What we know:
This protein is α+β, with helices and mostly antiparallel strands. The chain has two domains: about 5-160, Jelly Rolls (Sandwich); about 170-275, Arc Repressor Mutant, subunit A. Helices cover about 45% and strands about 20% of the residues. Strands 1-8-3-6-9 form a five-stranded antiparallel beta sheet, with helices on one face. Helix 6 (about 175-185) crosses helix 7 (about 190-200) and helix 9 (about 215-235) crosses helix 11. The longest helix has 23 residues, at about 135-160. The mean pLDDT is about 90.
Amino acid sequence: MADRxxxxxxxxxxxxxxxxxxxxxxxxxLHGDDDMGQLHLIRxxxxxxxxxxxVALRIAEPSLxxxxxxxxxxxxxxxxxxxxxxxxNLSFDGGPANPIPAALPAFTCLPLNELQGAESVLxxxxxxxxxxxxxxxxxxxxxxxxxLIQILRQLMERGQTGAGLLAGLSHPRLRLAIVAMHEQxxxxxxxxxxxxRAGMSRSVFANSFRDTVGCTPGVYLQRWRIGIAxxxxxxxxxxxxxxxxxxxxxxxALSRAFKMHSGLSPRQWxxxxxx
Length: 275
């Protein structure tokens, strides 16, 4: 079976940068006023989490908190004993063009013992976080990225992604068509061929896709192509080469689709990203 995360992460990767490892005591504010998400791992301690109002949840066992998009939050712990945290900022390659953060809930809380297959990774991560080994920062950054992939797997397997891209990749049949589009974005994908990939009739496929993903297959393919094009523009690639890679026959055709999708020409969009 095709790997449903491979093409997604190849085109839209994520990088982690650890910014805290140790105890947090009392009240700690995280403003969420940049373009990054955050992943917090709680090794020990009792933590109350607030999202601008009252207490949103109370954590009393080793857990993780994932914020894929900027979101202000506050941690409240015992002023003396505190709680042991390892925290990382998450940078999604392509910025707003990256479909992963948009496909995730605003925040996810998950006990660490429910993150299947992560025991050894978490043990190594906490050992690195709370000791002073050489290469510690690089190790922690990579381990956080591995944990995030495991979280994505778990959310898809549990059907906890809601509507959107990851919900489609969670579907046992729709994911076959979505992976095909991901792996070959330049190919022409008639509805009949996508339905055949999914092993469904044309009408059932179209309705299931729209209900699960939230748009038609044609719109989804265009969004995927434009997302790849936006990432390539940020990398400085020539528009003519990008057009060939994502299935548009010319720069003009890509520019029309790009403006329809984003409201800006490729040149205007690239300039806006530098502001």
